[in-house]
């Protein structure tokens, strides 16, 4: 049985740079049971109707700007998994979740920069999934719930986003009071996850301290993958905080696993 997990994808440079978080990602697959395929909900693929990728082999989308040429030269030609994609499409339909199978789109950096560290040989079959930031966390969770049976079949479901993601914070990273505020949000989030307090988590916008600062209304797509991954675990026996670090003290590199 595979777990479900949420991983921060941070800066695209995570695919190249030496860092504590990169080292953690390099070793993470060794802690998992045998996995035969991946399903990745990416913050960088948004759609109103749930999209399920059935690409045979992925191109690499460099959907960012201002980075070194070395990063744009990277390719991650992972294989797709058409049979699994069609199964997911069917399971979603049975759960009353409309979805569309997509057969052309490559992997965006929300997926491939993480996968480059986790499976550097690009030999693990992948089904990428879109997210819809305009539906509620409860509804995002419900979509993930439809896929809960996949973990019993050695399919690892990942949510790829960032829990504290506000580019406006970067120019104020020296502000101690601001850093304390976003750290308080992440501490609240971790505590509610470990307690599996779904009602509080679904209502994080009003219950969590400094939620509008940590997760601005125009940036909820990076929080959304957490709820999809939570739903995919079914009912966890344990929620583990696998890693916590910060970029410039104001954006998170966190990893949560739902066993």
- For the record, what CATH class applies? Alpha Beta
Give the full name of the CATH homologous superfamily.
LigB-like
Q: Which structural class should the secondary elements be placed in?
A: alpha/beta
H and E order: EHEEHHEHEHEHHHHHEE
- What's the total number of strands? 8
Describe this structure in words.
The chain is α/β, with parallel strands linked by helices and 259 residues long. The chain has a single domain, classed as LigB-like (Protocatechuate 4,5-dioxygenase, Chain B). The chain is 34% helix and 20% strand. It has ten helices and eight strands. The strands form two sheets. The protein has a six-stranded mixed sheet with strand order 5-2-6-1-8-7, with helices on both faces. A two-stranded parallel ribbon has the order 3-4. It is globular, with a radius of gyration of 17 Å. The model has no long low-confidence stretch (mean pLDDT 96).
Short description:
The protein is α/β, with parallel strands linked by helices and 259 residues long. The protein is built from ten helices and eight strands.
What structural keywords apply?
single chain, 259 residues, alpha/beta, Protocatechuate 4,5-dioxygenase, Chain B, six-stranded mixed sheet, two-stranded parallel ribbon, 10 helices, globular
Per-chain topology:
Elements: E1 4-8, H1 20-27, E2 37-46, E3 50-53, H2 69-73, H3 82-94, E4 99-102, H4 109-118, E5 126-131, H5 137-145, E6 155-161, H6 176-195, H7 198-202, H8 204-207, H9 211-214, H10 224-232, E7 239-247, E8 251-258
Parallel strand pairs: 1-6, 2-5, 2-6, 3-4
Antiparallel strand pairs: 1-8, 7-8
Helix pairs in contact: 5-10
């Amino acid at each position: 049985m595979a777990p479900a997990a949420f991983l921060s994808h941070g800066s695209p440079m995570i695919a190249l740079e030496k860092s504590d978080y990169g080292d953690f990602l390099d070793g993470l697959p060794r802690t998992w049971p045998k996995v035969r395929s991946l399903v990745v909900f990416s913050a960088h693929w948004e759609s109103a109707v749930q999209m399920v990728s059935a690409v045979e082999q992925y191109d690499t989308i460099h959907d960012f700007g201002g980075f070194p040429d070395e990063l744009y030269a990277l390719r991650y030609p992972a294989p797709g998994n058409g049979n699994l994609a069609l199964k997911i499409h069917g399971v979603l339909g049975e759960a009353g979740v409309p979805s569309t199978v997509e057969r052309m789109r490559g992997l965006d950096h929300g997926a491939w920069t993480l996968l480059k560290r986790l499976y550097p040989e690009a030999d693990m079959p992948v089904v990428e999934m879109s997210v819809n930031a305009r539906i509620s966390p409860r509804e995002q969770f419900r979509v993930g719930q439809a896929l809960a049976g996949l973990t019993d079949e050695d399919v690892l479901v990942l949510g790829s986003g960032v829990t504290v993601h506000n580019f406006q914070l970067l120019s104020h990273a020296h502000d101690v009071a601001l850093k304390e505020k976003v750290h308080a949000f992440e501490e609240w989030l971790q505590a509610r996850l470990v307690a599996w307090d779904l009602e509080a988590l679904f209502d994080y916008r009003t219950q969590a301290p400094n939620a509008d600062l940590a997760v601005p209304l125009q940036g909820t797509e990076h929080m959304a993958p957490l709820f999809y991954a939570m739903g995919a675990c079914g009912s966890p026996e344990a929620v583990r905080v696998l890693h916590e670090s910060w970029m410039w003290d104001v954006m998170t590199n966190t990893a949560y696993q739902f066993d």
